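P.,

For your records, the input lines for the assembly:
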Amino acid sequence: MSSDTLNFQKMILRLLEYWQAQGCLVWQPYNVQVGAGTMNPATILRVLGPEPWNVVYVEPSIRADDGRFGENPNRMQQHYQLQVILKPDPGNPIELYLGSLEAIGIDPRQHDIRFVEDNWQSPALGAWGLGWEVWLDGQEITQYTYFQQAGGVDLDPVSVEITYGLDRIALALQGKNSVWEMDYGAGVKYGDALLQAEIEHCQYYFNVADVDALKMIYDTYEREALRCLEAGLVAPAHDYNLKCSQLFNVLDTRGAVGVTERAQYFGRMRRIANKVSLAYLEQRQRLEYPFAGNPVWKAASDEQRATSEEHFELITHHSSLITPEDGDTFVLEIGSEELPHGDLTSALEQLRAAVPALLDAARLSYERVEIDGTPRRLAVIVHGLAARGADVESVVKGPPADRAFDASGKPTPAAAGFAKSRGLSVDDLSVVEEGGKRYVSAVVRETGWPSLDVLAERLPDLIAGIRFEKSMRWNGTNVSYSRPLRWLVALHGPAVVPFEYAGVRSGRVTCGLRPYGSPAYEIRHAADYRTAIDNATIVLHTDARRKAIAAGAHELARSVGGAIPDDPALLDEVTNLVERPTPLLGSFEERFLALPPMVLVAVMRKHQRYFPVYKGDKLLPWFIAVRNGDEEHLDIVRDGNEHVIRARFADAAFFYEKDIRQSPAAFVPELGKLTFQTELGSFLDKTRRLEQLVPAVAGMLGLDETARATAARATALAKADLATNMVVEMTSLQGKMGGHYALRGGESPEVAAAIAGQYEAVSESAAGMALAVADRLDSLAGLFAAGLGPKGSNDPFALRRAALHLIENLTANRQHFDLRAGLDAAGALLPVAWSEKTRDEVLAFIGGRLEVVLRDAGYSASVVKALMAEQTHDPYAATRAAAALTEATQAPDWETLLNAYARCVRITRPLKERYALRPDDLRLPEEQAVAAALAEAEAAKDGTVETFVASLRALEPAITRLFDAVLIMDEDAAMRENRLALLQRVAGLARGVADLSVLEGF
Amino acid sequence: MSSDTLNFQKMILRLLEYWQAQGCLVWQPYNVQVGAGTMNPATILRVLGPEPWNVVYVEPSIRADDGRFGENPNRMQQHYQLQVILKPDPGNPIELYLGSLEAIGIDPRQHDIRFVEDNWQSPALGAWGLGWEVWLDGQEITQYTYFQQAGGVDLDPVSVEITYGLDRIALALQGKNSVWEMDYGAGVKYGDALLQAEIEHCQYYFNVADVDALKMIYDTYEREALRCLEAGLVAPAHDYNLKCSQLFNVLDTRGAVGVTERAQYFGRMRRIANKVSLAYLEQRQRLEYPFAGNPVWKAASDEQRATSEEHFELITHHSSLITPEDGDTFVLEIGSEELPHGDLTSALEQLRAAVPALLDAARLSYERVEIDGTPRRLAVIVHGLAARGADVESVVKGPPADRAFDASGKPTPAAAGFAKSRGLSVDDLSVVEEGGKRYVSAVVRETGWPSLDVLAERLPDLIAGIRFEKSMRWNGTNVSYSRPLRWLVALHGPAVVPFEYAGVRSGRVTCGLRPYGSPAYEIRHAADYRTAIDNATIVLHTDARRKAIAAGAHELARSVGGAIPDDPALLDEVTNLVERPTPLLGSFEERFLALPPMVLVAVMRKHQRYFPVYKGDKLLPWFIAVRNGDEEHLDIVRDGNEHVIRARFADAAFFYEKDIRQSPAAFVPELGKLTFQTELGSFLDKTRRLEQLVPAVAGMLGLDETARATAARATALAKADLATNMVVEMTSLQGKMGGHYALRGGESPEVAAAIAGQYEAVSESAAGMALAVADRLDSLAGLFAAGLGPKGSNDPFALRRAALHLIENLTANRQHFDLRAGLDAAGALLPVAWSEKTRDEVLAFIGGRLEVVLRDAGYSASVVKALMAEQTHDPYAATRAAAALTEATQAPDWETLLNAYARCVRITRPLKERYALRPDDLRLPEEQAVAAALAEAEAAKDGTVETFVASLRALEPAITRLFDAVLIMDEDAAMRENRLALLQRVAGLARGVADLSVLEGF
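Structure tokens returned:
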């Protein structure tokens, strides 16, 4: 820590001063415990409605479940936020934000400041927004959000919300290993001021809080909030909702809230948030929007508007004197704040289709279109673009010739009118013959438009046509885009294509790298665009960035004797997070290698987007991060990233060490506190059910004794890891951690593997399959029985996935299984009523998934439909049948076979009665031949399509002969009924196999 | 508001910067609603224990019952505090504080900054301290406290607590008429940011909050706090106690807490505060006091110590070369922070006795002692003081002469030893004769000490000997004084009398006026002290200040055609609040004169220490305030004071107007919500009881019909004003406001007067007396019956005063009244059990008060005691009896009378049996004379002492003769018993009058 480094309190004062100089009101932390500064009414209420609002304040934020008893270097149940709201968007909020970092001594040139997609939402507040986590050398230091909705109300205007994690910023600034070591100010260590209370609060939240009492208080406070709302009291109602929220957090941390209950609590808080918001909006209207006339904020926005107007006038004035040459390069650069990884990829794809289509429609000829981009820019370069659209001639048909010209061949008024309507003279008309009739016709010539005009008209539509996974509004135009669009370069040759989109006017100025302060580069001619981008040291091409990262990373890994496994998903993401990639090698303490590699890798890949470094199968204590920027001060960036990973690993180690103090079995009783679903009980209840269901399922799956024993043991421990700290923290590791802990706890590798694999789609062992299948059966049966089957797109318990896993697991393992029996076995164990009706509902639901699976596998709709009725209960059989039936339908004799079978079906289908076959009464050889083949077919019948088709193939000649030679509907009733009985038996051969009547040609 | 005036937020930032530059930690507001920054753990916990702690933070403070629905210019349920804690006292905290005011633009030269005694205590926190309200131009802007105890724990070291009322300071700075008009910052008006929420919170606290629900939550949170404590969790326990405190405040504002309940709630919170404090102390010890080694705070205190050492060395070095001349003036100035009015008066009185005694004991002769002082200094000036104590000779007796000298007259070792022990030679011894025995003796000469030495030794004791009503500790010496002692001038002639007291070393530098920055004045010679004080423009003499104020005030009042009634108490107080008085005339809006004068006068006198200005009986819209300082910028001071009184009157008007919207009777049902005492019910219940009791008491008091009707009507409305806003706010107006509202509501003047006078000691009408007596009887009977009679010095219901009022009222109105009957009548109406035992307890309690009253009236202990047994039940009778008995005992024949009576008593007292008198069997004329006089006496007996003494006077000769002439104890039993029966009847004459046996001479 250098002598001019700010201590914690000076840093805060500096930030408050900075934002107050930017016209922000300096507000105070709220006097109700909140999880974030967002909940302070100065944010969550003031962002509502049309009034401007600019505010800054500190908020000590309480997140009970982030508590680590003070044992983590930067995770605590209380951290300090600095909250800034800018409403409306001032146009340059990121620049203002970066300016604030400079004000406290963070020079962007010396660090790696990154904007990593973060879509924020608060189910309790009914609020969401899009934005980023801002990373400083790998450390998340700020949440930056364009607030789209609050309290369930759309925001107009949108607010910019900047939430600084003050402790982490100070940690980075002071270069300490732990927040507790930081200088708070006045000679006091942060830890001396805060650590003891931190430990105590954790103790309270995790171990002491009285669950029943707090639930009761929650209910009471909720009632009080509603009473306030009835009395029209917005602020007190909001306070009570905040108190409810804090109580919920404590209950949650205490492990007292199940999945459904959680959703219910969120719903309750959201409902109140919505009422509060609506009441607030109404109130502001009644008060006639006191902030609307704020002189400071008005002056600032007027100034901003004036500057922008002036700027645009300059450019358009400039441009009106300049026009492109034919064949000049065209460039469009859509500059924005950092796009999310997926949006960048998708936008480029869309442009690759849309740009040629646009040019074609405008009849602008061109040589080549080049499209690429970085997180901050989508670039369209069109080489050799025409300065004007091509002219076209078209023949237009007019009135019939005999009406256009009179008998003397003189044009009638009809001809004159037609000619005039096309801008021609009557002399330009000619006569054409079409379908034996004669018409007048004219050749019409359409002149192409100048490129500037047509592009000016169409480029806004081009941009508007780009679709994003999620898009957002940010300014008064209420245009949506992935992230705020900040500049537009649109040049054809030397000329600006003048247009405006989302309040931004096109021009010739592009923007450099953030670490260099986003300098402006003026582009005189579109052909200079690449040079400008190169000068800005931006790597525009995605592929070039990808290659540079891969090469650099490999090189660095090699330098420490390691390697980087292929990881295209991660590589793609990192590529889209930077404009100028510089990979760097960081290290972490060897001691962390004692943690399970899956934990380390999950932290590195998922949280940090680092490439882990391996030597063979073994992790090395190194990682590769990728900086957005050059090599300068790379040591500072490395140092920062190493601090971050240390804290993250320390967090993981904290959990891990807590977990391994107990045997896995010791966590099982804890499952009693984790609600699976209110009516279905806890995860302990689920475990108890599975302990009965797994043996039954194992029987159905035909497991041997050893496998059954393995399955039984795995079942007993299967859900234990849900109660471990590691899985509570990193849900994605569920199952896998359980397997790890089981092995560590002395279980056999087979048991551990069964536990580890339980959430995978496909099990790798018979024991594992028994557990996985039983688990899905229990969930499906139970939740349907509780009336919680998926509705519409709402599938909170992921039952679609459960059904898919069942299907995939059974089919991949080539395992027959009767889902009906399985579901009934599961249903019988439930604490809620189970009925055949429910069973059929679940089966139909699984059938629906199966249909999708089979269609996705390429089977025709009719084949799939033919099987669905008969095979749904056994997915593996259905899959096999689909293949076989498809093969059969593609055989050359299929038409014959199907026809023969269809004749049997068609003639017997209207019969109400089922006749008994009397084989001895069949006298004709044609009858006897069918009967003989039928007998063989019935003997062979095994439910498979193959057997059925083989039988049919054997039967077909006899059937055909029978129909050719014999009148089935004989006058003699006994004879007729015996023949019909024969055909009924033939028709019945497909029962349980397929419904061939839905196939084409039946 | 001038252009360089700070807006609210800049003012706050400036203060935070200021204190952080003084080495304070910059802390954050607490995330639990608190009534004051004191409750933030950064104060209430950190002040505990030995560690240093210096902190500053803003605290939005919630005081529900200060809510005025936004209708008051500066009273709100939420105000912003800035809290500073300096631990330990840095030695110059007031100077630091004044520096902070200068930092935000408050120049002490342009204002009147006053330190007005304020003894802060929080019954809920178990905390107290001494200090001041700081007034800025009459406005309280800061509470400044030396924290003595917190959580029931004595603080060592003491902390300095400075609590700024930020809103009021800003109001004064910005010169606005209302906080709502202030500039908050960023162009936002304070009211636009806060007013709506203010109104809503008031609405909630006063009208909406669900009392039962909140009581239930209180109980739950209290349990949770206790559970936290059991688990050793200090911070969470404290949080819950704060939440309880806030809940209590809401309940209280909602009017849902009675007097006893309030005390119980305070007790509950205090118990938890105590447990929290003890747990915190233990914890800090276990953590080994992390702040103890704070480098910043250590450096500051080292520097302070070094400066002070250096300074003292300079002075002592200087002094050692200088000595006083005989007859030089001596001066002692004890300089301190502002003494409370009463302490100043009392200290001067004590010094006037102690100084001469000290000088006499030191045998220092002097011409004249002059003692006077101001709030900041006690000055002792001794004219013509000797430079050395007088020598004295004394004769000391040694061993007997025959042991001191042998037969040959030669001194023995005994003589030698004696001489040596007195520092003499044997030759100096002589022989004296005493009581016929001869001893050796010596004349011992004691030389007087130099004045500097003897004074240096004795002055500390002089200061330590001053006793204050309440005294406090402030620094490491833990010496107590009224307020921190900051400097000592002690000069004899040119020489410093060197000593140290309470960590302060004596010197020659005195301190000027605060408005001038307390400049230092060096005094070369004690004789120059007065000149120095005069140069400092300080008016040292209390009387001179008093006269200046009185003259100035009268002059100013005359200037607006008014006058100031004599008000010696207020004049004395104001005199003791200033060192240099400058009266000023301020005005207020005429419209406020519509308020009852008692309200205006109470506000002016009690809250503001202003002199109200009258014209005849009528108040004028003027007031006289007294500034501490000169005439400069007096307009600013006047302006500030006028703002203050406007806000205060607006507050009163707010209440008054709310109150008069209803008839007084309409408040009666509201009394149902005001608990009198849990078991005794509400004040409505009390009213209902009084409605029955008053007629009964009126009967006992012999009221006529008209008076009875008046009393009944007054009783119905008597307590109504307790539910009015005005009385809730200004309790001292209870009764009087009720009378006012009653008259306004159309009641007769007699009824109004009875209501108005009900709390006075002495009623002015019979109806009033019936109400007042009944009220006291109900309270005494009820609270004793509920087991709540005073214990020790604890008298929460002021029952001592109730008893005294009963006694004074009855005696002043010369009204006989049998308290036994009255109490029984009251007891019969109670909702709790009433018994003779309780009645006797109450009677004994009243008797105790009566005894004190009579003793205070000058009656001898024996007279009072003689009456107590017989007359307690009728205080007026007792009073009269005391006078009569005293008169009788002073009559010349009293000894004779008493002796005669005593003989009758003494001879009959041992008898167990009571004999029947057979008058006809009395044969002797001596017997018959007694019997005749007895018959007359018994016929005259009326219970008064006068009659009894007259009877005794008539009986005495007969009694004396009887005893002289007749042997009472005759051998004949019948004769003996008849004589004893006669004497028993004589002895019985005093029954119900007095117990003469306790008188001297019996």
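Two observations worth noting. Chain B is about 50% helix and 15% strand. Residues 259-286 of chain B form the longest helix (28 residues).

Regards
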